[in-house]
Each structure stands twice: as C-alpha cells, then as structure tokens.
C-alpha cells in the first residue's frame, strides 16, 4: 500500500475519504465511513440455496455476517481465495435497518481523499448496463476509480442477485 | 429553579406504573367486609406518591385526580368511609383511569377528560357522602388502655382527621407542634431545619429542643438524630396547611399538631420504656403518646394527636425490598453478546491449550480449566439477569378474573402458584396474551354457573388454577379449572358439520381435543364479548409455538380441564445435536428429535414420484436427504453408510438423512436474518467452539420446503 496521491485537499469540506480496493483489473472505492473492518480470508459456512455471489456466513465478534464475492457479483472471472485475499466488512443502511456484510476483494489499495467536484457521473451505457450501484467515477493518480454506492449494491435484499454485471468494467473504461 | 425535570419523567412514569400495579393488586386483596388497614395504607401510599410526583412534574390533571382519590382513601383509612363494593369498583376504575392518564401523558397524547372528570366527580360524591355523615368516631375516643396499642392506624387518626377536628382547629391562633425525627430521617436526606423554615413561613415560630436522649459520645451514632422539638407557631393557618410542611418528611418523622391552649399532649417523646431505636416491625408512632395523652387528659376527640398519620409511611420505608437498579434491555443484550464471545474465545483457547507442549503446558491447561469454570459461571449469571419471575405476568389475573366473573355472574376462586418461577424476559412478555385467553376460556366455557355447580355436587365457586414450575430445561405453565371439561361430542359434531372430520371417522379423545386448535373453531353457542374476539385457540397455539413451546390439553367430562404449556427456559439457548453432512455441521434442536437410527439399504422404499420413505415403528416416514435439500456434497449417498435422524415438526415426522452425528451441546442462537435474511429450513445460526458458524435447522421448515420441492 503506497501512500501517494490526492491527500492535499483534506481540509476541503466537500472532501470525503474513500477506501480503494482492487478487483481484477479495476479499482473500486467505498466510503471509508461504511467500512467496519478489514480482515484476512477465512473459511465461511455455506448457506443452503443462496445466490451464487453469497459465499456464506462468518462469525464477526458474535454476529453472523454474510460474505459476498464481488467478483461473482460483477461477473468477473473467478479468483482463488488465498492468504492475501481480503474481506472488507461494510455497513449498509436501508429501510430494513442497518446490516453488516463482508465483500471479498483481491486486495486493498489505499485510503484517498476525494473532492466532490472531481467525481464524474457514470456515462449512459444503454439498457444493458444498470449502473445504479455506481455513485460516480473519479480519477486518482491516473487511475480510474469506480465509486460504489453500497446501499444500492447490496441494498435491503442481499439475497437478490444483481441484475446487471459484466458491463461495469466497460462502464469504467468508457468513462 | 431552572432544573430540567423532563429527564426524570421516564423514571416517574415507570415507577408510577409499577406503583399502580401494586395498588391494583392490593385492592384486589382487600376484603370488603373486613379490610386490612395495612393494605389500605399501601393503596393510600401509592396514590399519595403519584400525586406528589405528578405535582412536582406539573402534571396537574393527574395530581388533581389523585388528590381526590387520596382524599377518599384517607377517609377509608380513617374509617370515615366504609369500604363497600361500589367504593371498590370506584377505586378499581380509578386505577384504570390513572393508568390511562399516565400512559397518555407519557406518550404526550390526550386522554378523555370527560371520563376523568366523571370519575373524579363520583369520587368526590363518595367523599362528600361520608363527610356528611355524623363522624361516628369523633365521639370522645375511649382512652385506649396503655397496654393495648393494637390498631394504631385505625382508631386514633380516625379521630384526628375527622372534619370535626379540622373545623375546631381552624379557629386556633396558636399551634403547638411536636416533632420527633425517626432514626433514619437524617440519612434519608431530610433536614429538620428546612422543615422549621417551612413552618416559619406561616408565622412566628418558637423552637424548643429536648436533648435528654442524646447518648454519651462513645455510643453516639452521628447519622442519627437524637433531638426532638416542641414548636410553637403563632398563626391562623389551618392544621392541614401546617401538615403540608410535613409532607416530605412523612415516614421519617413523627409529629403532632395541636391547637395551643388546650391540654396539648407533650411532644411525642417516647416514654423512657421505649427505646429510641424502635425495632422495625413495631408500630413506631402513635400508641405511646396517644395513650399517654388520653390518659393524662381525657381530651375530646379533636385534640387527639394526629401523630398516627405518619404511621403508614414509616412502614413503607421499613419494608425489606431487595434493592435493585433499572438497566436498559439493550445494555443487557450487549452484555449477553459479549459474554457469548468470551465463551467462544474460551473454548478456542481450550482447544489450543490441549495441543500445547513443553514445560509450562500443564500450568497453562490448569489455568484454562479454571478459566472455563469461571466463564461458565459468568455465562450462567448473565443469562439469569434476563430471567424474571412469572409473577409479573400472573399479576393481571386477579383483576381479570374478578371482572370476567362478575360480568358472567359466576363465582371464581383464582389460585396462583409458582409466581417465583423465572423465565426469559422475552418469553414472559409474549406469554401474557395466550394465558389471558386460556384463563378467559376457562371461566367462560369451563366453569359452570353457581346453581349448575351446586346441582352437580360441586361448590358454588369454581376454581381456576394458574401454576408455573420448572421441569427439566422447560418451564411448565398450567391453566386448570374444575369446571365441566371439554365436551368431546359437541366438538366432534361441530368438526363434522364443518367437514373437518369425516362422518365415518371416530378420532381418539386426544385427536378431538386437538381440533379446538384449528383456526376458526369455536363451540361457544353464542359468542360473548369474551370469546369470539377473533383470537382463538389457534392463535394461542401459534404464539406458543413461536416461542418454541407446545400446549397440551387434558380434560375429564364434569371434572375440569387442564391446559399445559411447556416453554423453553430461554429463547437465546437451545439444546442441540450436531450432525454433519460432508464438510458442513448443522444443529438439530433436541426437542424436535425423536430418535436416531441406522437403516439398511433395503429399509428405504421409493414411492413412484413422491420420493423415498422409511419404515419407523410401523409407520412410513418420508426420508429427507439433507444434502439434496441444501445442495451439499455428502460423504456418501448410500443410506447404510449414514444415519437417519427421525425428527418432528408441525406434528409431522420425517427421517433426516445425514452423514454422521457429533456431540450434543447447548448453543446460543444468533440471528441470521439481521444481516442476511430468512433461509428456508434454517431457524438461525450459532457459533461453535472453534469460532466457526453452524446453522440451526428448523425441522418444520425443512418439511415444508421438501414438500414444495416435491410438488414442483
């Protein structure tokens, strides 16, 4: 994890911190305030008849937390779970209340400050690409970061499979 | 005083609700013919303290209403008002109204002012009626023999508080006031000086202290007040106004207020024979001075000392209530969660410790064994914190039974046993309604009218018995009555007419009783406002099932019925059997397991399209393969290589095919729904000793999802 980039604007009021992580070739970002913790990969308990992207549940200090594989959620090629595979535990707020869940990612990159003005809207990719769960795109140190809206991504119904998928990477590239 | 009192509101409401409950309970205990003065005092105290609190917080409606109620109760206490059934009804109605007013005020809603005003008017009428009667006890109080201080609360204050007394006193221009602090006055934060200051507001006050009781320094307890005072107050205020100053020290201090110039009794200085520290159970107040006064000068009633007014309060403070604190349930749940974590960490350490080698390994293991014991104790005590005696759920029944019985014209004796039996708070909260329904049913349908009972050779009054006790790891609550019992023929006829039972079928008695749990089943010929509320036995059963319990009926025609509810001790823990399928471990609740067995390949029969069945004790049971249902790769698909767990859910038995059984253990139930969602066939999850998660099976749910799958 190199501490580089856009840390200059910390005092700006419209700035918020984003945790970035890598999934395949892409870099994604989530609001740091939604991150509960980051932990190493650990075997999960499978939930019968769950959608494929729900790997199972883990014991997180006494509460039972579902683990979602974002690669499967975004229809990326399957990766091996290794010792460096990371679970980011996030909090989702919805009308159903607060839920915690973990996402499996390839690796965590950095914490960066993002100015609200720097966030570009997601381009329209046509009906093929539902991009509800993308809050916007931002360029950080020459890299494209897809900012995720995790409330939309997981929402009230974690059990529901995500309608869209592979187009996400394309969306990033198109922007 | 700009202090924000709002922060204390919640405490006031909670305490008031509790106080009202105890008031209601006390009222129901009262025998109208021969009221126990102690019980009347309890009731009076409640009204008094609610009035005080409401006044302090400026809830003027409540304060005004309770003031009227208090006046009536004071009359009852003083013997001016004879307790009668109409008065009792009035008092019970007041309990309801007070509760509603408090609830409305708490929620900042409005309540029906007309209802309150009507009742308050009725109370005032009751007060006025008795006040108008010649004050029977105002006749010269016969000087009680000094040796018999028997009913201190009843007689002397009666005389003292009569309107006559007030009237006579109103004209006085100088008062003599005796003040004698009880031992705990100072320790309860009451300050005599503040009292004098309050009195001095009424006029010129002279104070004379008697110090003869102060012991030698060596035996002096600095927290006690040994001094008592004789005050002279030059003022034309009424006795009541003076008494107001004593409102806050009531119970901590004896006092007398008499017009000066009459044969005023001395300050209620205890005669030498009475030690200053009165044992808690002796009436602390009136008798000695009262007796002394009337012996010295057979004074006419108005001058009798009013000291006895302080009596009831004194006993209140003397009551040996176990001390307790209020804690938010959420904090408790957090505590329980944390302890659950500690339990898991401990078992993880134990597993590591078992593998440890080297010189210090033995010491590590003994330390871990100690930790295990401590953790188990900690766990048990924390779980006990959530347990509450069932008495609080029972407490509403005396009133309910009284009301229902009165309305139906039946005579009912309610017997409550096992009120101390403890059960989980959540269970306790949710068991109330089913119990109410069962008790109502017993009275409505079970117990006969008095003449019927007499004709049947029973006592005119029927008995409804509510009983709670522990049996194994379950709580049993029984509602039984000695009424006419369930009428099998009528239930069967009704079931036949509804097509629930075929005309040719003759079900067993047990099966007939089961019928009353079917939705919409009622044999009551006409629905009263008790039955037919749309809450039937099916709801009762559903509620009990939701708590993981079950309900059984036993009934004998003409002798009565008994409904037995059995509930798990707590919702948070279940006794489970670990089973494994492939890599996965599941927990089957022990309550749903009938038997586990191994069967031969030939023991499984395939029904053309409806799956497999096994033969078990002469019945054929569907065989559910857990690996198929859950999509797990099993160790083996061959029946003879695994085990079959015969389990029961929703009254249906099935065989669950699993790879193997593991140990039995108590598991802490964790919600799967909170972060994830409902999973068919799974009721929750738990955390095993190694920190991994295991799912808890819901047998009824498994059966349902298997049959859906078969239908698809």
Structural class by sheet pairing and helices of chain A: mainly beta
CATH architecture of the largest domain in chain B: 2-Layer Sandwich
Largest sheet of chain A: 5 strands, mixed
- State the share of residues found in helices of chain B, binned by percent: 40-55%
Q: Give me the CATH fold name of chain A.
A: OB fold (Dihydrolipoamide Acetyltransferase, E2P)
CATH homology superfamily of the largest domain in chain B: Histidine kinase-like ATPase, C-terminal domain
**Helical segment tally of chain A?**
3
Question: Count of helices of chain B?
Answer: 22
How far apart, in Å, are the first and last alpha carbons of chain A?
26 Å
CATH class of chain A: Mainly Beta
Distance between the termini of chain B: 74 Å
The averaged pLDDT of chain A comes out at 76
Tell me the series of helices and strands of chain A, N- to C-terminal: EEEEEHEEEEEHH
Overall pLDDT metric of chain B: 76
Whole-number total of structural domains of chain B:
5
**SS class of chain B:** alpha+beta
Order the strands across the largest sheet of chain A as they lie in space. 8-1-2-10-9
Shape of chain B: flat
Radius of gyration of chain B: 34 Å
Strand order across the largest sheet of chain B: 14-18-19-17-16-15
Describe, in short, the structure shown.
Chain A has 175 residues and is mainly β. Chain A has helices at 70-73, 150-153, 167-174, and strands spanning 15-23, 26-31, 35-40, 54-60, 63-69, 86-94, 97-105, 107-115, 134-140, 143-148.
Describe this structure in words.
The complex is a heterodimer of chains A (175) and B (712). Chain A has one domain (16-174): CheA-289, Domain 4 (OB fold (Dihydrolipoamide Acetyltransferase, E2P)), CATH 2.40.50. Chain A is 9% helix and 43% strand. Chain A is built from three helices and ten strands; from the N terminus they run βββββαβββββαα. Chain A has helices at 70-73, 150-153, 167-174; strands at residues 15-23, 26-31, 35-40, 54-60, 63-69, 86-94, 97-105, 107-115, 134-140, 143-148. Chain A has a five-stranded mixed sheet with strand order 8-1-2-10-9. Chain A has a five-stranded mixed sheet with strand order 3-6-7-5-4. The longest helix of chain A is centred in the last third of the chain and has 8 residues, at 167-174. Residues 1-12 and 161-169 of chain A have low confidence and may be disordered. With 712 residues, chain B is α+β, with helices and mostly antiparallel strands. Chain B starts with 5 loop residues before the first helix and ends with a helix. Chain A binds chain B through residues 43-50, 54, 56-59, 61-66, 99-101, 157-159, and chain B through 337-338, 340-341, 344, 584, 629-632, 670-672, 674-677, 679-682, 685, 687, 691-695.
């Amino acid at each position: 994890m190199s501490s580089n980039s856009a840390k200059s604007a910390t005092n700006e009021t419209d700035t918020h911190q984003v945790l970035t992580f890598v999934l395949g070739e892409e870099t994604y970002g989530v609001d740091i305030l939604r991150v509960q913790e980051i932990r190493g990969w650990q075997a999960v308990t499978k939930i019968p008849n769950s959608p494929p992207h729900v790997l199972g549940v883990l014991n997180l200090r006494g509460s039972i937390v579902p683990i979602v594989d974002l690669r499967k959620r975004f229809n990326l090629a399957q990766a091996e779970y290794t010792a460096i595979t990371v679970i980011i535990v996030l909090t989702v707020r919805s009308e159903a209340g607060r839920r915690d869940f973990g996402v499996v990612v390839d690796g965590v990159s950095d914490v960066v400050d993002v100015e609200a003005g720097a966030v570009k809207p997601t381009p329209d990719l046509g009906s093929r690409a539902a991009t509800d769960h993308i809050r916007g795109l931002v360029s950080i140190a020459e890299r494209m970061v897809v900012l995720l809206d995790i409330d939309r991504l997981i929402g009230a119904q974690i059990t529901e499979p995500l309608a869209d998928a592979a187009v996400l990477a394309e969306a990033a590239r198109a922007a | 005083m700009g202090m924000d009192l709002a922060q204390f509101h919640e405490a006031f409401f909670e305490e008031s609700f509790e106080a009202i409950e105890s008031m209601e309970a006390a009222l129901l205990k009262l025998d109208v013919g021969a009221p126990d003065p102690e019980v009347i005092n309890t009731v009076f105290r409640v009204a008094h303290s609610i009035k005080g609190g409401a006044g302090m917080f400026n809830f003027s409606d409540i304060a005004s209403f309770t003031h009227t109620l208090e006046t009536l109760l004071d009359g009852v206490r003083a013997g001016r008002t004879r307790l009668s059934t109409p008065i009792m009804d009035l008092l019970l109605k007041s309990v309801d109204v007070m509760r509603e007013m408090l609830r409305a005020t708490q929620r900042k809603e409005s309540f029906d002012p007309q209802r309150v005003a009507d009742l308050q008017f009725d109370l005032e009428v009751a007060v006025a009626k008795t006040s108008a009667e010649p004050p029977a006890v105002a006749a010269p109080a016969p000087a009680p023999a000094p040796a018999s201080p028997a009913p201190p609360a009843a007689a002397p204050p009666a005389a003292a508080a009569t309107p006559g007394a007030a009237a006579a006193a109103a004209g006085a221009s100088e008062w003599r006031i005796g003040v004698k602090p009880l031992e705990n006055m100072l320790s309860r934060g009451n300050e005599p000086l503040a009292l004098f200051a309050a009195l001095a507001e009424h006029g010129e006050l002279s104070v004379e202290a008697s110090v003869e009781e102060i012991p030698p320094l060596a035996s002096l307890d600095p927290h006690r007040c040994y001094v008592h005072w004789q005050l002279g107050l030059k003022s034309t205020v009424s006795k009541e106004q003076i008494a107001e100053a004593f409102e806050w020290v009531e119970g901590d201090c004896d006092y007398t207020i008499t017009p000066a110039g009459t044969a005023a009794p001395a300050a209620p200085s205890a005669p030498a024979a009475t030690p200053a520290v009165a044992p808690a159970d002796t009436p602390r107040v009136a008798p000695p001075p009262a007796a002394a006064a009337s012996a010295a000068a057979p004074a006419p009633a108005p001058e009798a000392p009013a000291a006895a007014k302080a009596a009831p309060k004194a006993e209140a403070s003397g009551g040996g209530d176990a001390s307790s604190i209020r804690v938010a349930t959420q904090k408790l749940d957090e505590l329980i969660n944390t302890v659950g974590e500690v339990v898991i960490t401990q078992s993880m350490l134990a597993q590591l410790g078992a593998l440890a080698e080297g010189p210090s390994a033995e010491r590590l293991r003994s330390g871990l064994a100690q930790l295990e014991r401590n953790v188990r104790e900690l766990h048990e005590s924390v779980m006990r914190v959530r347990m509450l005696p069932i008495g609080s759920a029972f407490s509403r029944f005396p009133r309910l039974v009284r009301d229902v019985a009165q309305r139906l014209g039946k005579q009912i004796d309610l017997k409550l046993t096992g009120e101390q039996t403890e059960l989980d708070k959540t269970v306790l909260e949710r068991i109330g309604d089913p119990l109410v329904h069962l008790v109502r049913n017993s009275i409505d349908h079970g117990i006969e009218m008095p003449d019927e009972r007499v004709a049947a050779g029973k006592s005119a009054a029927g008995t409804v018995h509510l009983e709670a006790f522990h049996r194994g790891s379950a709580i049993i609550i029984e509602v039984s009555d000695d009424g006419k019992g369930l009428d099998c023929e009528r239930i069967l006829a009704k079931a036949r007419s509804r097509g629930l039972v075929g005309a040719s079928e003759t079900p067993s008695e047990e099966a007939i009783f089961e019928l009353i749990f079917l939705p919409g089943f009622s044999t009551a010929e006409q629905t009263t406002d008790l039955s037919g509320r749309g809450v039937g036995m099916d709801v009762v059963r559903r509620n009990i099932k939701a708590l993981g319990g079950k309900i059984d009926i036993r009934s004998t025609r003409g002798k009565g019925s008994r409904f037995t509810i059995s509930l798990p001790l707590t919702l948070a823990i279940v006794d489970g059997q670990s089973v494994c399928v492939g890599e996965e471990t599941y927990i089957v609740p022990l309550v749903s397991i009938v038997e586990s067995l191994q069967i031969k390949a030939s023991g499984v029969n395939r029904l053309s399209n409806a799956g497999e069945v096994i033969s078990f004790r002469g019945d054929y049971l569907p065989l559910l393969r857990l690996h198929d249902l859950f999509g797990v790769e099993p160790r083996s698909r061959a029946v003879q290589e695994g085990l079959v767990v015969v389990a029961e859910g929703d009254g249906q038995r099935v065989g669950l095919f699993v790879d193997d059984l593991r140990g039995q253990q108590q598991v802490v139930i964790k919600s799967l729904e909170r972060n994830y969602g409902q999973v068919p066939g799974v009721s929750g999850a738990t955390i095993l000793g190694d920190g991994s998660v295991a799912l808890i099976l819901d047998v009824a749910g498994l059966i349902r999802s298997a049959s859906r799958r078969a239908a698809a």
